[in-house]
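hey team, just a heads up i'm posting the complex here instead of the shared drive bc the drive is being weird again. everything in one block, sequence lines first with there labels, then the predicted structure for the whole assembly after. its two chains so it's a bit long, scroll down
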Amino acid sequence: MFKINENYLKLPGSYLFSTIGRKVEAYMEAHPDQSVIRLGIGDVTQPLAPAIIDALHLAVDEMAEAETFHGYAPDLGYEFLRRAMAEGDYQARGCEITADEVFISDGAKCDSGNIQEIFGTDNKIAVCDPVYPVYVDTNVMAGRAGTYDPAADTWSDVIYMPCTAKNNFVPELPKETPDLLYLCFPNNPTGSAITKAQLQEWVDYANKVGAVIIYDAAYEAYISEPGIPHTIYECEGARTCAIELRSFSKNAGFTGVRLGATIIPKDLKCGEITLHTLWARRHGTKYNGAPYIVQKAGEAVYSQAGKAQLAEQIAYYMKNARTIYQGLKDAGYQVSGGMNAPYIWLKTPGQMTSWEFFDFLLEHAQIVGTPGSGFGPSGEGYFRLTAFGSYENTVAAMERIRQI
Amino acid sequence: MFKINENYLKLPGSYLFSTIGRKVEAYMEAHPDQSVIRLGIGDVTQPLAPAIIDALHLAVDEMAEAETFHGYAPDLGYEFLRRAMAEGDYQARGCEITADEVFISDGAKCDSGNIQEIFGTDNKIAVCDPVYPVYVDTNVMAGRAGTYDPAADTWSDVIYMPCTAKNNFVPELPKETPDLLYLCFPNNPTGSAITKAQLQEWVDYANKVGAVIIYDAAYEAYISEPGIPHTIYECEGARTCAIELRSFSKNAGFTGVRLGATIIPKDLKCGEITLHTLWARRHGTKYNGAPYIVQKAGEAVYSQAGKAQLAEQIAYYMKNARTIYQGLKDAGYQVSGGMNAPYIWLKTPGQMTSWEFFDFLLEHAQIVGTPGSGFGPSGEGYFRLTAFGSYENTVAAMERIRQI
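-- predicted structure starts here --
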């Protein structure tokens, strides 16, 4: 008789955003006359930029003729896109990353969930708290998290690194030594950023203790201040300890187009084995390449026109971020983030729990946000709003909040 | 210090098709004047059908306007495509599969590699021999295969079900009882088909011993004879024992477009736990949906125009299949397949090993095929050619084979 993966049964409840979706749906069914503003899930709302649309149409036309048709893509990605990323995201910043260290994928969520597969199940992971749930949940599924304590909302084998107002939402080095360290900066969900000097400390630490940093740079394009690293490879020594995850979702609006990349420097080794080889084997065996037309769209992100149009798109969202930040401040909330990230992190008022505030905000202002506790125990009492709505909706949401 | 997944180190050599790619590249570099005909990897060559191209352009245009832009897709797929598949592939054939039992993905390779994740590592798998390498390799990576015996080319914990000329390339029920049974019909690599009565035996067996059948139906569109099941759900009782994998690669030329689906009936349970719930959780946590534009292209496959155009495309490839089958027969080869599948399976001549024949064919006829031994020990002494080339190349290839 077949046996299921029992680790799945340890997962409490369902995936955070599915739960939110169901709650919102139920509210809308009960109140069909109300207009709900969604500032919860980090989904973009602006259409794809014209340069990307052009690239997509061109690529579709290529698929219509035998001479220019593209079948299976190279498992690891087309050279044109790997090179565009290596040059545009790394070499242009003085970072030593080559095209063959870039692995193209269908998105950073998949990569951040799959990357743990190339590590043994006996590795100990450390995560920021609060944190993007995928890092923890996928390690639970793989049997790496131990047992769940519902009262504390923690896993016995996971090292939590609290990010609170006290440390300005940037964690301290953990007391217990981890093997795998998940870091995401600019941060989801808190919107906090890390300075290059701070990140260098993490790189030095990882090299010292022999840990791998899985660095999620999905929000890099939103950095507006100097001194904030756009990639972990700006730090010395990162090539021997860091994997970087890149997304096209937030810098180019590809949430529904699906494109991402994982960078694994060839210097990152366990004894003689490079992680580069293991990930290449994983990709070659369990993945079949991102669609040609999508990779061509990705290439357009690095074109002159694409860059200019996407800069405008990001400016649009960052105007929303400032609107939310200021709106909440004016309404008396304690608020952070929104400066180098599309996320605004606020303290729930009057000792409300995160989910109480979720219900309160949905009920009284018809605004959907994300409960901080959904991201981990230190997120309790906090709440995330995103800048990805339309400007009109964002202004309207702040108006509603002012009135409650 | 971090530890790697040691299971990866057990894998011998690299992924079959990567090895072939490298060999062909080396040959072409050494013989730049020779024209190589590729009938090796199962990649299509015909351009996308007009109905699909139209759907792609339309969907791209939708992505260009805020009002019709699509961000994150539902994790499990858009309702329009799930319904089109449930109706077109199942209900139209009298099979009881509903839209919410269809999980859309970016391809059957990913699904066939990922599906094992929802099962415990202590399950025993059984595979046909020869077999598509992904089934075995992904179980090796998960630690389910035991140790490798290089002399026998077998894994200690895998049950092999030989498919040879003696059983007409359809396996007998295994002597040892498996927990997970991988079946693929019409078969890759042998091109053999299974009758409905034969498949019913497997379904009855699986229900009796409590095994799950993972049924890969990627080549279903190539069935030309009556009495051959197009889906395992044509068999009674399949809803309590079978998962089906569907691909858009071979029926619609989506190898570079990337779309597939996994069907998990809600009746398929381990105690009270449905596999449907586990796969939904896996998809929701580790996957972020197939691209909107690709799902719209998938919908076009089920339109009137799409169906008519794709029937022509399949007829084109099947003409190639007959050309290869007859060409090889005429040249004195022992050959099977090619009737309900785009694969032709031939016995290597003169006691040559599969790889010897690979080199021989590349050297003397500049034809790339796939060595049967790459698919498992019982594939030794066999060789696979595919019908996915152009008709002109297929005819030319047979001409070359006649002359060696």
